Amino acid sequence: QIQLVESGGGLVQAGGSLRLSCAASGRTFSSENYAMGWFRQTPGKEREFVAAIGWSGGSTYYAESVKGRFTISTDNAKNTVNLQMNSLKSEDTAVYYCATRGGGIAALDTLYNYWGQGTQVTVSS
Prior knowledge:
By secondary structure, the protein is mainly beta. It is built from no helices and 11 strands. It has strands spanning 3-7, 10-13, 18-25, 34-41, 48-54, 60-62, 70-75, 80-85, 94-102, 114-115, 119-124. It is globular and about 40 Å long.
């Protein structure tokens, strides 16, 4: 059983930066046979893919809407995945969720097996 806990959400002005972290417990990931993903959701909208990374850190994948602004990374020693968000826009406002799956990186939320509770990110004008 895997538990994921997100942290780092908050209120930031447009153009600012925020760093989200996802702490995993229950197992230690050691290869790209396991992948981590970040998704976001606002009320009335489908859950949206943001970024994904193989646990080894060798492969990454980003949604077009965040390319060049967000960076996903792993800290294997701490069993965490981070999402550095720069140049934030109002449309980035959402609850951000961390997820993991057994397999390669993927953008489809239904492929992920475990989910955190989410952390709120609000970008003000």
